[in-house]
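Sequence, structure tokens passed on for absentees:
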Amino acid sequence: MKDKIIPFNSANEIGDELKYIGKAIKNSHISADGVFTEKCNHFFENFFSLKKSFLTTSCTSALEAIAILLDLQPGDEIILPSYTFVSTANAFILNGVKPVFIDIREDTLNMDESLLTSHITDKTKAIIPVHYAGVSCEMDEINKIAKDNKIIVIEDNAHGLFGKYKGKYLGTLGTFSTQSFHETKNLTCGEGGALFINDSEYIDRAEIVLDKGTNRKQFLSGQKDKYSWVDHGSSYRMADLLAAFLYGQIKGYSIIQSKRKKIFNYYYKSLTDWAINNEVLLPTIPSHCDSSYHIFYMIMPNKNSRDNLITWLSKNGIGSVFHYVPLHNSKMSIKNKWNTSECPIAIKKSDTIIRLPLFHSLEEKDLDFITGKILKYIF
């Protein structure tokens, strides 16, 4: 019988989100490029020392915009981990690009950088590291390989906002990076994302691509006397109404991050002995990385123990989930004959991972309840 209901995720206000939404409405401008869009982009550019930030409708649309900016063509290739969300690949195959999937590391579940060189061909245009759970990929090695082979690095930073690698913020280590503000993310506005650009060469064209391929920005600023269609693009800009909610989250980001870190550490401390005794693996954060504390996961001994624990927690009113099905094994990959790489670690982790509730409004009594039920789980 359920004693309590704790969802896997709950998107909550942190402070003034509704007040800012009200201001956006009073401004009579709730579509793209309003006051709150400017505030959000200004924050990101200054906080992360970016060349440019663009709010987008999603992390997916930010990735799609990059594919256009790089003029990727049918037959071009990108290298990405098999263990990631479908958007990391989908945004590029729309342009006929071939995804080349590689396996992940045992420790961080990130792209295995040691496999990169053997998968690079003369058709490889980009490497897309995904900072799983908010822990950085090995960016020094990835960037070195990319530089040696004249390949662009695109950070899929959907999990990693505010995380660090060797003291540098994730999202600032590639030519481009993409962020997600989906309701499951540390900062949210329901649906949304951002494109961070770290090379000023791409900024002017990005303005056009994000504006449906038009020179709208140049027209409004008086640089062009006609507003017209000049390039590829789509409707990629976030509505200012959503930016207003996001700005409220940004204003409270330090509280959100502090609470998420506290929750992560509570899980880790409470479950360490149990995990050791039951051959369960807890997250690895290398000493040179600072996590964004986006996900707390456990790797169970086998699929049955994982599935049974999810069922056990559900019966006790606790939401928990597994995560990605490896993309190289997907129906889409098999259909298009992209499943050319064996990724045994991705398969193993996918079959045995469980994610626990982690959102900033979780209270200590909730964590006591969750960990108490896990400690009572019988293998």
Summary: Residues 29 and 240 are 7 Å apart (CA to CA). Residues 253-277 form the longest helix (25 residues). The first strand starts at residue 52 and ends at 56. The two ends are 20 Å apart (CA to CA).
